Amino acid sequence: MLSERIYQFRRNSGLSQEQLAEKIGVSRQAISKWESGISTPELEKLLALSECFDITIDELVKDEAFTQGTNEVPQELEKTKDPKAIEMKVGIGLCLVGAICLILFGAMMVLSPSAAEQLNGYFERIWYTYHSLRAFDGYRISTNIAKKMNWGAGI
Fold first, then answer.
1. What pLDDT shows up at residue 123?
2. Over the range 84-106, which residues count as b (16 or more CB within 10 Å of their CB) and which as e?
3. What's the pTM?
4. Distance between CA atoms of residues 29 and 34, nearest Å
5. Are 34 and 44 in contact (CB under 8 A)?
6. CB burial class (10 A; 0-12, 13-18, 19+) of residue 63?
């Protein structure tokens, strides 16, 4: 929280609430309210605080900010993964698996044409079965519609 961060940075700087208040031009009570979380500083006061502590406003406001006085990223931030990076890795992995399957299928066709013909026959049967079922389903749907609409007594 911002209140805790203000307190931490003030203590790390070795300043009392009174000294910090004088540096940024507010009352000691204002510093006390900020540190206790009763109120929050305005933007210009946040700027003054960040300049006083020699940090950026991001470092002052964000919990995941850089460590004070260094440009090192905390270990917690390094461990977080970008979802797009994960999706990209999965996509590349699937492409590689597909390429390997194609290479193996091609090698099988060269090394064992009879096995390739068997696979081709298998895929043809699947294709014909799919289209036969699709045609039957289309016929069944059209006859059901005709029955519901009373189109033709013999259907």
1. 78
2. eeeeeeeeeeeeeeeeeeeeeee
3. 0.42
4. 9
5. no
6. exposed
